[in-house]
């Protein structure tokens, strides 16, 4: 096995050559967040002597079972609280100064990993001459438990957004070290899907992240509209303390409880089951859309590639088949428990779009637009209104597996060109046209990383997004641009929910 040693700020690391590119796996970008560092912002790695062998992936962040990935035969098994590592794929560790993509995985801020084979960066390196970095960050209560309002003695008074601060620490590591791996620290694109895209929106609004990236890709995010307020996050923390039978004057006990017990305790209550980033007024000054509205088109605005899938919400019916047993009124009640009241006008609109007797498809589209498309369009609108460079897409290709359709996460192996990765065919099916769609998306992401423009001879001309025509690339077997393809839905929801 060919190996190559690279010098970083903290010491030498050894990587390996495989499948046409170099990889360095499990490189520490911060100290292990354990013991007294649990619920604290990440600290720089301790420098080492000798050579750190970066030949194997690190454990993923501690988390409970991901039902969807387990169904697909791609479950995570190597988990540890010591998880703050990153992975690099590069064509060469030379002086070429290639564009860099830093990928932030999704998973509702409670699951997922940067070591998932669906996110293998080999094709970005070999096809695109791009340096691809994937990261782990703290999840669930370990990453987003907000204790600030109760930490009167100052200890643990900077908790709450540790998972986002981990991402910033990884970006700082990239800025300081990526040139030695063949990358250009001033040509960094941050990219993510689902909670990863929400993270990208948060990073665009966080003062500490300023200057660490020049471009951003947001896939199927919610623009941070569902982040917690301080009051909501404090209520969740108090409920967790009640479950664990810990007093507010005993917060230090939280740093010694086994991580698995913390996760299980959080999952035992509906109120504490989900921990998200917190609009704490400090690390995250306000909800991302509000911060971006007030930015007024700063000179250093990032270029955006942003979009969603046509039938996002169908993934959650794959995770929980009970969705298929519900009638229309039951589905609406469940939607309301997730996102709040559903306007009557929206119910009528979607039921009229599909044949009678097919409430599942119509209401899945309703929740797709409300939860994913609407905040995505709002973010694009804000950035475009400031004169920013924005490219909008929608992923329309439909899986041949069950009723998954063009669901949430369906686009991931297309973007990474990892159709042969474990579990992918069980999710997408094995239709031969997958390869055409994958190459169109993959090359668009590569082009965007190189020059902030996804165009090339692999797709029809893709104009910048603007508020007059709203051009949107529709990725399917035949890729094409449509102007404002969801106009009627967009106008409905803008009228029904103007505050999002």
From TrEMBL:
This enzyme's EC code(s): 3.1.1.-
Gene3D superfamilies in the record: alpha/beta hydrolase (3.40.50.1820)
InterPro entries: AB_hydrolase_fold (IPR029058), CarbesteraseB (IPR002018), Carboxylesterase_B_AS (IPR019826), Type-B_Carboxylest/Lipase (IPR050309)
Keywords, ordered alphabetically: Hydrolase
Ranges of residues in domain Carboxylesterase type B: 3-493
Source organism, top-level taxon: Bacteria
Family: Belongs to the type-B carboxylesterase/lipase family.
Protein name: Carboxylic ester hydrolase
The organism of origin for this protein: Alicyclobacillus mengziensis
